Every structure is written in structure tokens, then in C-alpha cells.
Amino acid sequence: MDINLVDGKIPPMGPLYQMSESEMKIVQKDVTDMTAKGLIQPSKSPCGAPIIFAKKKDGTLRLCVDYRRLNDVTVKSTYPLPLIDEMLDRIRSAKIFTALDLKDAYWLVRIKKGDEWKTAFRTWYGLFEYLVMPFGLSNCPGNFQSKVPRTFADMLDIFVQIYLGDFLIYSLSYTEHVTHVRQVLQRVIDEKLSVNLKKCTFHTTKVQFLGYEVTPDGVHMCPDRVEAIRNWEPPTNLKALQSFLGFCNFYCSFIRGYSSIVTPLTDMTRKNTPWRWDTSLQSAFDATKEAFISADVCRHFNPDLPIILETDASDFAISGVLSQVHSNGIHPVGFLSRKLQPAELNYDTHDKELLAIIESLKGWLRWWQFLSDFNFTLEHRPGKTNVVADALSQREQDELDIGDKTAQQACLLPPHLFAALLKVTKDDSISHSQIDKRIIEAYQSDKYYHSVIKWMDNVHSKACPRFPYDSGKIRVVAKRQDLYATFS
């Protein structure tokens, strides 16, 4: 791995923090062990990052290096990481799972010779630099993801998913799964990799992967994450609130009307908003926690089953629920909701409803061929029968302040802006000249365009170069072609 710095920039020398006696012992032990293993070496670098500690799940401390200053002056890698939603889509038919965790995964990659000095860190026992890729560098995830999955390329997306050092092996049957696991483990041995057995789970119907609990039926939130939210204390400052929202945002696809529920909390994070914590914020905080505690189980998407997309729009928010029809009823695949942007608040009702459809299709369209690949029927459902989607968009937390309620509603294309309609079907036998003639007649008969054409006759097209005027026809000059202007 190479570490490219911004021209003329080098990371500064960081401070040495005071430590307790137990922390000093951890530093001494870790530095001695890593030096003996050839992972680090003494350094004469002009820079040095400070060390800090992070608490593990079992309560013990892990030595970490604070590379934030180095990351600030590092040229960022653009290598993409896999989309977790897409990875979970791949395993929709699986019945049995195995999860593997590569041991000390980052240490499998060496630092490019000559770049070691950039990783230097300071301790009470001296200055050291890494010979292998350390945790905490901004380009580590992309660099690692570009290397390890290639080793398993012939298995990837067939019966294994890899996200950094986490492997998920999935199969349709137990017999098939035994074969798949053996193939992956043999490749691990051949490539001289190793796994952390304490973090591995073999041949199970319920497995934790990337913060989710995966079963043959669907995807759940991991119980320990739900418990963490349940026990979360009310934030006492902006940073604590941002931490809570950041944690919740990761799982928002499980929550009906998530954006509506957290609106009072997100409003508090706006720039220049003075900190306060009143009863309305406490209520929103409690409602958010309760939503996660009682969250739905999202089923795996099955392309062979009928799909139902229910959408709704209120004056202040839009929402969608993607469901599928199973043999035992209709089950949700995911939820989507968001507040309307200021400009969208002025949309007419039917435009907001269409916006809800478009945003929902965009949100769940994994392969981005927008609208054209959908074969769907639009059906209007009154709010009293469209219960789920309607509830997501009709929350009072999303209402505007009193001062905003005077905003005038306006549809995207009001009817009075349309000229006379010219209907031509594909079965009509009509020449281009006849179409031109009918367009001119439509212009002349339209009250609005009659005055426009009269004005164009007087000033000619020099006044409006983007709208050339030619014998009663107004054209729009686009980048690639000319279009007749049939609306203003």
C-alpha cells in the first residue's frame, strides 16, 4: 500500500497523552509484540501520530493510533466498497450460512517501501513506524477491498460475499454448504491467510454479518444493536446527539417513517441552532428508540414474487413501502421516507404523489434503469386504506413553522401554461409538413401563444436567440436538437 500526500504537505507531530499504569503496560506489551513479529520498527520520522485506546466488546482496551492529521493530507483513494444492500440481496434464497473473520486482516498488506515513515506514531517507549497496513488510515478500506476479494473472484457472488475482512458463505442446502465452506477454507490456506475462530460461525440458519442478523426469512437488526439503542441515554450536547443519529441512520430502512420520527432531532443539528433539550425533543428521542425496539423484519427481496410499492405524500413529507406477496401474506422488504425540500413544498398535491413514486423507485432500483424497466399499474388508494404509507407521511413533526405555512402552492406545470393540445398517434398517416401546419394552427388558436407570436413577428428572434422564430413556429434550441416549444 502506498501513501500519497498532498503536494507540499506532511503530517504534523502529535502530542503524547498521559496514561494510567495499566495503559502503559498495554503499550509496552503491544509495541514489544509487534516489533518481534515484524509489524513495526523504530523510526526516525519527522512526524508522529498520537496513540489512544478503544474499548473492546469484552471491556479490555485496544491500542489505536490517531491518524486524523495524516488523513487530512493524504490523497484519497477512489476505490469503491461494496454496497451492503446489494450484498444482502445476493443471499435472498440461501438457507444455511457460515461467517468467517480474517485474523488481523489489514496486517496482510505491506506498506510500500519508502512510505513507512508516514505511519510513525509516538509512545513513551519511542517512535515507531508500521511495515504493514495499520488500522485508521483513510485509504485502508479501499486498498484492502481491492486485493483480498480478487483471491476469491471465482466464488464471489456465487456462494460467498466479502466485505473487507468479513466473509459470508451461503448455500441452498447443508450438503452444498459443506462443499462451499471447504472450498473457501482451502483457498484461505493456499493463500496463507488465517481466520479468527472465536469470531467465526459455522453451518447455521442465523448469522450476524456487517451489523445485521441474517436468516432464511429475512434481515433483522442485530439484537445487541437494538439493546444499545434501548439503553442509550438522552444526549446532553450536539456531539452526543449526532452520535445517536449516526448510529440510527445505519438501520433507518427498518423503520416506518424514520425521517418523520427524527425530524425534531435532526432540526437541532442545523447550523447555528442553539442547544436545548425540551420535552418535544425528549419525546422524539423516546419515539425513535421505541421504533427501533419494535422494528419490522424485512424479508429478502425475491424477483419471482409479485411486488407492491405503496407510496404517499403529505404536505411535508413523502414515503414508500416496498412489499411482496408471499404464500402466508404480504411482508415488507423495506421502508423509505424523507421530508420535502423547501422547493418541493410548493408542489401541487399530484406532483408530490408522483415525487413519492419516483423517489421510491429510485431508492429501490439497484441497477438504475429508471422507470423504463418497470411494468406497473398506478392505483389510487384513499388514505384510510393506504394505512402504512399514509402514516409515514402524515406526522405532525414534519409540519412547517407558522411562518412557512403561507408558502403558496404551485404545480410543476399549471394548465394555463399549455398551448392547444395537438394529438397525433403512431397510426396516423401524416407528413412532417402537415404536422408543422397543425402546430401553427394550434399556436394561432391559443389565446396565450397568439400574443406571443404577434410579439415575435414584431421583434423577430434576435431578442430571444434560444427560441428562434420561423414562419409561425417557435423552436427551443437544445444542445443536440431543436424542439418545438409547445409550452412556455
CATH class descriptor name of the largest domain: Alpha Beta
The helix content, as a percent range, equals: 25-40%
Shape: globular
What profile does the largest beta sheet have?
4 strands, antiparallel
Descriptive account of the structure:
This protein is α+β, with helices and mostly antiparallel strands and about 500 residues long. The protein has four domains: about 85-105 and about 140-220, Reverse transcriptase/Diguanylate cyclase domain (Alpha-Beta Plaits), CATH 3.30.70; about 220-295, Alpha-Beta Plaits (2-Layer Sandwich), CATH 3.30.70; about 300-405, Ubiquitin-like (UB roll) (Roll), CATH 3.10.20.370; about 415-485, no CATH class. It has helices at about 20-35, 70, 85-90, 140-145, 150, 175-190, 225-230, 240-250, 260, 265-270, 280-295, 350-365, 385-395, 430-445, 445-460, and strands spanning about 40, 50-55, 60-65, 95-100, 120-125, 125-130, 160-165, 165-170, 200-205, 205-210, 210-215, 220, 300, 305-315, 315-325, 330-340, 470, 475, 480-485. It has a four-stranded antiparallel beta sheet, sandwiched between helices. Strands 10-11-12-13 form a four-stranded antiparallel beta sheet. The chain has a three-stranded antiparallel beta sheet with strand order 1-6-5, covered by helices on one side. A hairpin with a 2-residue loop joins β15 and β16. α7 (about 225-230) packs antiparallel against α11 (about 280-295). The two termini are about 55 Å apart. Mean pLDDT is about 80; it is low at about 365-375, about 390-415 and about 475-488. It holds the Pfam family RT_RNaseH_2. It comes from Planoprotostelium fungivorum. This is Retrotransposon nucleocapsid protein. InterPro entries: DNA/RNA_pol_sf, Retrovirus_Pol_polyprotein, Rev_trsase/Diguanyl_cyclase, RT_dom, RT_RNaseH_2. Keywords: Multifunctional enzyme.
